[in-house]
C-alpha cells in the first residue's frame, strides 16, 4: 500500500465518522483527503472496491490487536479481550464510526463482499476466544467440562450484541462488560455460587 | 385503529419485506395496499409518522407474545422464550423483514423516535427475563446467588447479538440457541459441571 492509498483509507475513516455509511461517496472521501477525486478513481475504480480494501485494512488491524491481547493466565487474557471489546469502546473518540459500522452490518445481507469481510472479523474473534478458553482448560484454570466452541460462540454473540445495543439504544457498555465478566468468573472458572451454598 | 390504518400498517410490513428499510417510501406502501397515496397521506402526514405507528403496533404485538410465553416452571418459561427469540426465527417466512429491522437499528442513532421504540422492545424483553429469573430463584429452582438484573441483561444482549449475527453474517440461530440454553442450564440452575468433578 503506497502513500496515496494509505491517505485514501484514512480519509475514508474520517468520512465515515462524519457522514456515516449511507452518505459515503467518492466525492466526500476526496474532500477529506489531500487528493483529487480522479486520483482516488485511479486507485479504486468504484466505491465498493475502495470500501472492500478499507474493511481489509481494518481487519488486519483488528487481528493485530487481538494478537496483542496479553496476560499471564488465560483468564487474564480473556479479561483483557473483554476490556478491549467492551470497556475500552466507551472511551472511543469516534462513536460515529461504530454507528457507521452498524450500518455496514445492516448492509451485509445485500453485499457479498461486506458479508465475507464481517464473517472474517467474527471468525477472528471466535478463534481468539476459543484458543484462550482451551488454553485455560489445559492449564487447569477453567473447568474441563466447558466446551470451548460453545463458550467462544456465546461470548462472541454477547460482544456483538453489546456493540449493537450500545449504538442502537445507548445501552451502557459497562453493563455488558460486567455481565460477560460474571459469566467468565462463574461458568468458565467453575466458581458457581451454588458450590458455596450446597 | 380503523380498517384503512390497519391496511396501511400491513402494507408497510410487506413493503419492508420486499424493499428493506432504506427503500421504504409512501409510494411503495400505497402500491402494496388497496389504498391511494393520498389516503395514506390523509392518515399519516409523513413516512416517519407512519413508521413510528408501525413500530408501536409491532411493539404491542411483541409484548403480547412475551405475555403468552408459558411453562410450568420458570426454567420452562425461559426455554420457551429462548425458543421464541432464537429457534423459531430460523423458520420465519420473511427473513427480509429481520434484515430490514437490522437496518432500522442502524438508523436509531439518527432518529430519536426509532431509538425510543427500540429501547422499549429491549426493556420489555429484559423485564420478562428478569421476572422469570426472579420467579425461579423464589421457587428455589435457580441458584439464589444469581443476580436477576445481570443475568437478564446478559441474555438480552446475547439474544440481540444472535439476531445481528444471524442477519449480518448468517451465523446459525440454533448455535446461539444452544449456547444460551447451556448458559441457563449451568449458570442459572447452578448445575455447573465442576460440581461433578470437585
TrEMBL record, chains A, B:
<dbReference type="Pfam" id="PF00440">
    <property type="entry name" value="TetR_N"/>
</dbReference>
<dbReference type="InterPro" id="IPR050109">
    <property type="entry name" value="HTH-type_TetR-like_transc_reg"/>
</dbReference>
<keyword id="KW-0678">Repressor</keyword>
<dbReference type="GO" id="GO:0003677">
    <property type="term" value="F:DNA binding"/>
</dbReference>
<keyword id="KW-0804">Transcription</keyword>
<dbReference type="Pfam" id="PF13977">
    <property type="entry name" value="TetR_C_6"/>
</dbReference>
<keyword id="KW-0238">DNA-binding</keyword>
<feature type="domain" description="HTH tetR-type">
    <location>
        <begin position="2"/>
        <end position="62"/>
    </location>
</feature>
<protein>
    <submittedName>
        <fullName>TetR/AcrR family transcriptional regulator</fullName>
    </submittedName>
</protein>
<dbReference type="InterPro" id="IPR039538">
    <property type="entry name" value="BetI_C"/>
</dbReference>
<dbReference type="InterPro" id="IPR001647">
    <property type="entry name" value="HTH_TetR"/>
</dbReference>
<dbReference type="InterPro" id="IPR036271">
    <property type="entry name" value="Tet_transcr_reg_TetR-rel_C_sf"/>
</dbReference>
<dbReference type="InterPro" id="IPR009057">
    <property type="entry name" value="Homeodomain-like_sf"/>
</dbReference>
<feature type="DNA-binding region" description="H-T-H motif">
    <location>
        <begin position="25"/>
        <end position="44"/>
    </location>
</feature>
<keyword id="KW-0805">Transcription regulation</keyword>
Amino acid at each position: 500500500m503506497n502513500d496515496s492509498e494509505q491517505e485514501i483509507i484514512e480519509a475514508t475513516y474520517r468520512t465515515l465518522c462524519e457522514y456515516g455509511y449511507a452518505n459515503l461517496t467518492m466525492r466526500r472521501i476526496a474532500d477529506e483527503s489531500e487528493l483529487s477525486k480522479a486520483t482516488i478513481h485511479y486507485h479504486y475504480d468504484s466505491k465498493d472496491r475502495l470500501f472492500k480494501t478499507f474493511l481489509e485494512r481494518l481487519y488486519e488491524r483488528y487481528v493485530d490487536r487481538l494478537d496483542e491481547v496479553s496476560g499471564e493466565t488465560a483468564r487474564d487474557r480473556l479479561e483483557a479481550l473483554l476490556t478491549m471489546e467492551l470497556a475500552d469502546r466507551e472511551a472511543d473518540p469516534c462513536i460515529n464510526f461504530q454507528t457507521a459500522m452498524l450500518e455496514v452490518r445492516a448492509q451485509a445481507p445485500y453485499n457479498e463482499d461486506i458479508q465475507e469481510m464481517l464473517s472474517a472479523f467474527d471468525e477472528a474473534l471466535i478463534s481468539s476466544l476459543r484458543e484462550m478458553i482451551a488454553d485455560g482448560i489445559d492449564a487447569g484454570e477453567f473447568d474441563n467440562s466447558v466446551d470451548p466452541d460453545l463458550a467462544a460462540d456465546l461470548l462472541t454473540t454477547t460482544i456483538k450484541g453489546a456493540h449493537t445495543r450500545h449504538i442502537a439504544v445507548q445501552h451502557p457498555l459497562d453493563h455488558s462488560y460486567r455481565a460477560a465478566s460474571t459469566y467468565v468468573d462463574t461458568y468458565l472458572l467453575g466458581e458457581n455460587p451454588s458450590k458455596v451454598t450446597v
